[in-house]
Sequence to fold (115 residues):
Amino acid sequence: MVDTVAPGVTNIITRHPAVLAHSVATLDEYSAGRAILGSGVGESAVYNIGKKPARLKRLEEVIGVIRKLMAGETAHFDGQDIKVSWPARKVPIVIASSGPKSLQLAGRIADGVLF
Fold:
C-alpha cells in the first residue's frame, strides 16, 4: 500500500502557482489527505523545452504563494493578487535539491527534501 501520493517533482517554470496549488489540493482530496507536493527549479524538464531553471529566490517566492493559496489566503504574484476558492488544505511541500544552497532553502521553508 502506498502511504503518500505525489506528482514527483513539478517545476515552477511551466506551472503557475495557482495551478500547482489547485492540482495538489485535488490530489490530496482524492487520496484522503495523503498528497505531497514535490517542486523544484526545473532542471531537465525546462532544459528540454529550451528554458533555464528558476532561481532559488523565485522558488522561495512561489512556495510562499502556494502555501498562502492552500491556506485560503490571497497571495500577491507577478503584480497581481490571486486567490483560489476551494477549502484550505495543508499539504506538505518538499523541494528537489542537489546543492548546498538549495538544501539550505529546503531546510528553511520546506517540509522535506528530495535528493
Remarks:
- Strands lie at 10-11, 37-40, 75-77, 80-82, 93-96, 112-114.
- The chain is about 35% helix and 15% strand.
